[in-house]
Design brief:
single chain; mainly alpha; 13 helices; globular
């Protein structure tokens, strides 16, 4: 970039008291090339993701903002921590944590916590950015529209992984720690870890996509929360009523709240889900439609 140098300019100013001669000085102004290290574009996505994770958890905010998210985290982790603590604190209890509560039961127990966490955490950042009309500012700097959506999606997935995957890993690691032969138990159960990761992804992806898609349609957080709760609370009722009417299980595949949990349970146990392959088709369709909504909504590149 070219340089522009303005030398000092001085001159008397008439009409001053006492005949003083103050000097007006224009200092040198230089425009020089930036010589620092340039960060990759991925760092901008990482910064956005970190910021989007911190805000819903209340990190860097008042103590009151931390109460609700950490209460949900405590409820989600309490069953896994309790069954791990029993054999650790009471040596006379010769039972594995997975015998007290299995992975499918843990997924089912945390399903309500997942809904509450998605409703309150996922819409926080997208609606705020649209309300404050800063999207145009984001897209004019280091973030493209696709990178912004990617950062928000990674943040939503990370937040939900705390609720879904975290307790499963606590139960898995706790089972190793409380086993009489930790090495042998790990060798025999190593195949459970990939299934746990896949099961968590089955629950996280549709809920994160649905929460972000609904949040992208409004600048009011309360509207996004209401829309999400309407879908996940009314959907199960309608699907079960339809299942009773037709006398079959296939309508359960359209349950937006319990469907992903049933699929994740099928992944962990290796059994077929009650609604069959239709449930996987609905799952994939939900993720695809929500992704399309995000692409169309943010494809405009503005704050509208």
């Amino acid at each position: 970039m070219a340089e522009r140098v303005a030398g000092p300019v001085a001159g008397p100013v008439a009409g001053t008291a006492g005949g003083a001669q103050p000097r007006a000085v224009l200092h040198d102004v230089r425009y020089v090339r930036f010589t620092g290290a340039l960060r990759p574009r991925a760092s901008a996505v990482a910064a956005l993701t970190a910021s989007a994770v911190r805000r819903p958890l209340g990190l860097g905010r008042s103590a009151g903002a931390k109460v609700w998210p950490f209460l949900l985290l405590a409820v989600a982790y309490l069953p896994a921590l309790a069954v791990v603590a029993v054999p650790l604190l009471v040596p006379q209890v010769d039972v594995q944590p997975t015998e007290l509560i299995g992975y499918p039961q843990l997924l089912a127990t945390n399903s309500v916590v997942v809904l509450a966490f998605v409703a309150t955490a996922v819409p926080t950042v997208p609606t705020r950015d649209r309300r404050d009309r800063v999207l145009s500012l984001y897209f004019a700097t280091a973030l493209s529209r696709a990178e912004y959506v990617l950062g928000q999606a990674l943040a939503a997935a990370a937040l939900l992984a705390l609720i879904v995957l975290g307790p499963l890993l606590v139960l898995f690691v706790g089972s190793i720690a409380t086993a009489d032969d930790p090495g042998g138990w790990l060798a025999g159960s190593a195949g459970d870890l990939p299934r746990l990761l896949l099961a968590a992804a089955v629950v996280v992806l549709p809920h994160a996509a649905l929460g972000l898609a609904l949040a992208s349609l409004t600048s009011r957080r309360i509207f996004a929360i209401g829309a999400y709760l309407a879908v996940v609370l009314v959907g199960p009722v309608l699907s079960r009523l339809l299942a009773l009417v037709v006398g079959a299980d296939w309508p359960l595949a359209f349950d937006p709240a319990g469907g992903p949990v049933l699929l994740a349970t099928a992944v962990v146990t290796g059994t077929e889900q009650a609604a069959g392959s239709l449930a996987w088709v609905v799952w994939a369709a939900l993720v695809a439609v929500c992704s399309a909504v995000l692409a169309l909504r943010y494809g405009r590149g503005g704050d509208a």
